């Protein structure tokens, strides 16, 4: 099965979900859009009916200046709808922001214009934390099948079905670490720590980008997270 894990030209919908939180976000979007479409068509129908009736019967409702019941309905109904949307949105917002029972942690520091990653749970061959810098692959160095402005020289490797925490900071200006398929978006502030978490529920390679304008090369800060099996992940750590 082919998944949409990267941006596509003229794409209008979400990338395919690869984590429970992204599935919940898409479901919330679809539920809200269902009611918004009903409201849109209802308002258009009412306005269309009024306009057509005035064209055909030019004196229709000439002496009607107000209607208490109608005014009450169109005042209370939007309020109830907004309360419903707010409660469901806040519930999901707090659930996503809650980080507990994580299996592994990544430390990410943003720079103009690249990312620095560390695996603080694992030590490398030099008895220091496993870490690397991740840069955009120039267009002249792209291999066959690689994605322009999205591929990097060092990918984040993550084992499948693992609850991972991303601790994000910045070394210069404000950035934002975002990977749509995983439902991750965490702003990176200089001198402060922010966090996000995800549980990748399928294998694949997921693409994201810095989502905060951070300078002239803002578009040159792609993010690539590759989810592999636990066995391959252990081999990856051993080679590091």
From TrEMBL:
The primary site where this protein sits is membrane
Q: Which UniProt keywords apply?
A: Copper, Electron transport, Membrane, Metal-binding, Mitochondrion, Mitochondrion inner membrane, Respiratory chain, Translocase, Transmembrane, Transmembrane helix, Transport
Q: Which cofactor does it need?
A: Cu cation
Catalytic activities: 4 Fe(II)-[cytochrome c] + O2 + 8 H(+)(in) = 4 Fe(III)-[cytochrome c] + 2 H2O + 4 H(+)(out)
Residues in Cytochrome oxidase subunit II transmembrane region profile domain copies: 6-100
- Is this entry keyworded Transport? yes
Q: Paste the cofactor note.
A: Binds a copper A center.
* Gene3D superfamilies reported in the protein's UniProt record: 1.10.287.90, Cupredoxins - blue copper proteins (2.60.40.420)
**Superkingdom, natural source:** Eukaryota
Q: Name one GO cellular component term.
A: mitochondrial inner membrane
What the entry lists under InterPro entries is as follows: CcO_II (IPR045187), CcO_II-like_C (IPR002429), Copper_CuA (IPR001505), Cupredoxin (IPR008972), Cyt_c_oxidase_su2_TM_dom (IPR011759), Cyt_c_oxidase_su2_TM_sf (IPR036257)
Q: Which GO terms describe its biological process?
A: ATP synthesis coupled electron transport
GO molecular function annotation: copper ion binding; cytochrome-c oxidase activity
Q: What does the record give as the function of this protein?
A: Component of the cytochrome c oxidase, the last enzyme in the mitochondrial electron transport chain which drives oxidative phosphorylation. The respiratory chain contains 3 multisubunit complexes succinate dehydrogenase (complex II, CII), ubiquinol-cytochrome c oxidoreductase (cytochrome b-c1 complex, complex III, CIII) and cytochrome c oxidase (complex IV, CIV), that cooperate to transfer electrons derived from NADH and succinate to molecular oxygen, creating an electrochemical gradient over the inner membrane that drives transmembrane transport and the ATP synthase.
Q: What name does the UniProt record give this protein?
A: Cytochrome c oxidase subunit 2
